[in-house]
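User: I'll paste a sequence; please echo it back and then give the predicted structure.

Assistant: Echoing your sequence first, then the prediction.
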Amino acid sequence: MVAAAPEILLSLGAGLVMGIVFFGGLWLTVRRLGNTGASLVLLSLVLRLAVIAAGFYALAHIGDWRHVAAGAAGMILVRVVISRQIADLADKEKSRP
């Protein structure tokens, strides 16, 4: 089965959405840590992993390994972008007087 380019682009888009949910959720969880630390982290982890597992399960059933690879590439792209933005925010906070 040959994967068509539009299908691969949709899988890449699905990976981008999964990455935003996963890494954005992680960032929000870390920002909200306080007295509810362990329970919040555990609940966030379970929810984020459920979204990712369901997403990759759907991609695997839609097509072949190319769809899963495109989804993973989308997640990695989001990780790189979010990591750089968070690093930039940390640098700006350090440079404030």
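Residues 17-92 form one domain. Residues 65-95 form the longest helix (31 residues).
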